[in-house]
Amino acid sequence: xxxxxxxxxSLWSVFVATWxxxxxxxxxxxxxxxxxxPSYPLAVRSPYLSAWLPGNLASSLPSSAPQxxxxxxxxxxxxxxxxxxxxxxxxxxxxxDGTQQAALTDATFTSTHSTFTLTAGDGTVKLDFxxxxxxxxxxxxxxxxxxxxxxxxxxxxxxxxxSDIDDTWTGQSTASTWSHTTNGTTGVYQISxxxxxxxxxxxxxxxxxxxxxxxTRPSDxxxxxxxxxxxxxxxxxxxxxxKLGNSYPGWTSGGVVGxxxxxxxxxxxxxxxxxxxxxREEAINYLGAAQTGYYRxxxxxxxxxxxxxxxxxxxxxxxxSSFDSLIESSGNxxxxxxYSDILALSVRQTFGGIELTIPNDSLDANDxxxxxxxxxxxxxxxxxDVIYATFPIFYVLNADFIRLLLQPIFTYLDQGSYTxxxxxxxxxxHYPNATGWNSNTEEAMPVExxxxxxxxxxxxxxASKQTDLATTYSSYLQKYAQYLYDNxxxxxxxxxxxxxxxxxxxxxxxGVKAAVGLGAxxxxxxxxxKYASAATTFADNIYTKRLGTNSGxxxxxxxxxxxxxxxxxxxxxxxLFDLGIFPEESYNATSDFYPSVRxxxxxxxxxxxxxxxxxxxxxxxxxxxxxxxxEFISDLHAxxxxxxxxxxxxxxxxxxxxGDNKAGQSYTFRARPTLGSHFALLxxxxxxxxx
Length: 691
What we know:
Blueprint: H1 11-28, E1 31-33, E2 39-46, E3 49-54, E4 67-68, E5 76-82, E6 85-90, E7 99-101, E8 103-109, E9 113-120, E10 123-130, H2 138-142, E11 145-153, E12 158-166, E13 176-183, E14 186-193, E15 211-216, E16 223-229, H3 231-241, E17 256-265, E18 269-279, E19 284-286, E20 289-293, H4 302-311, H5 313-335, H6 337-351, E21 354-359, E22 369-372, H7 384-397, H8 400-415, E23 433-434, H9 446-464, H10 468-472, H11 474-487, H12 508-525, H13 529-544, E24 556-559, E25 562-566, H14 572-576, H15 584-593, E26 611-613, H16 614-622, H17 626-640, E27 652-654, H18 680-683
Parallel strand pairs: 1-8, 6-7, 19-23
Antiparallel strand pairs: 2-3, 3-4, 5-6, 5-12, 8-9, 9-10, 10-11, 11-18, 12-17, 13-14, 14-15, 15-18, 16-17, 19-20, 20-21, 21-22, 24-25, 26-27
Helix pairs in contact: 5-6, 6-17, 7-8, 7-9, 8-9, 9-11, 9-12, 11-12, 12-13, 16-17
């Protein structure tokens, strides 16, 4: 390379100047721990309270808007004044005159927290976005709110903290109403769509009914003021004065609702906490009757509920510290730090697709159920195979969630309108309408879902040591076992949970599902040896007699006698539950095979595809030898840390280059709760580890 000199500057001076620039740039660069994820969970508590920050926007946090899981922008800002100078800290997409940009120094995430640290003048500002995950505290888990705590330290100057949201959180931002209420020292804003449509969603899948909530209270001796109105007016008022005018004009298009805390002169550090949420009294349309949030048995009014949520901060934060430590230490000790990172990024997304409910009329806390949304694929409610994909996280943390998710399905069956010989696929075409399929027109997956209902029931019983589900619904379990017995070894052309493959006859993975399902049913019932015998016969034919493998038994085929090879994962419960259905040889052979077909970024779902599914990679890793396990974990970790993606953790991605798509880029899906599948490896270490 030829270097041209300017004037009498020496080559050495150019080198020094260049090195100095690079060194300063490197020293000013933010650090990301444990890595920069595709998207940071900010407020992720339900399908309708799901706010994220694309990872590539973290460095420009002061001017970057968070997004709803769908990808549309949300307004949520933080401005901090230090010594009379205002700094944009978060989400200020249109800078106010007289403000400066804070600078990000580091960003971290755990299972329940996403934390960003910035410098603002001589002060340090930490933003802690905290979405509680409390698998055994149903009140805490069901509250539809999330915390943002702003901590300022490192300065002795006077400090003020401002934050606002707007009606982008409602799904109907062209026409809204808002109100301001106080409850003691707590200030609460409620923003509602002006024309609510109960149980309906916008094109971005936000709720068109209910209300967005923003609340805070004074802390550390702060003085609280508030105001609503055009963002330029409200924010400029804070920038100029460090406080707001406590004026609340009616809603205007693009208006914000804001709070300002005056912390005074800082000694050490001082913090304020905000609560953001989305509340729907009529949360789920279940078989024509409204279900509401579990928390409403204790706090039926929104203002009281969010006030309690703020009251609960200290206890919730203490629990989250123990919870985060458990996830990290358990994952790390079992399979290394890469695995614990994967688990940490999976937790909030999983629980963020689920809501705990009770009947809206009785508010009976003893009649609790859980509903799950098939986020981003087709929006189905209570999809059985989505529950199946997700169950390992519940097996590990609280198996009662499996029961709570199955209960709406069994109650639906008791209603009598569903009369088919096999289990239903879901309870409704789109969340939150769990109204069933009275005309039996659902997307049928006969072998898949029949096996799943049995396996999920046994997963609950195995982990909890409770037999209530199997006893109460024994007639359905026997019915589905008989269906597998009659139809499972040679499945007719039908969908499996990988419905992108289309309807295929004699799918090997479905035959495996039938064998393992029958083995699990034998454990549940212990009443009919024919099912146990059929399970081993199916397995013997599929593997040992090569019905579903290549001639050498090195790999499973997608269909009996039909290539390509397939990443068979339905034998995972065979290992988890120690059923002893498939021979050890089958696991050793496939464990040796999968690394041989590993592509650029991982193992695809089958030999004809260029994309892989993280759910099933995790399940296969769980039943593979240690070196193969390490490869699967390494590939999954590389995928979520490669910097190529911005969507909330997609469980489908390209494993090799494909036209405009690079190996390691996500493919289609985003924010799905099925990441609970990543706990499949940890589940092998034991159930119910969270106390």
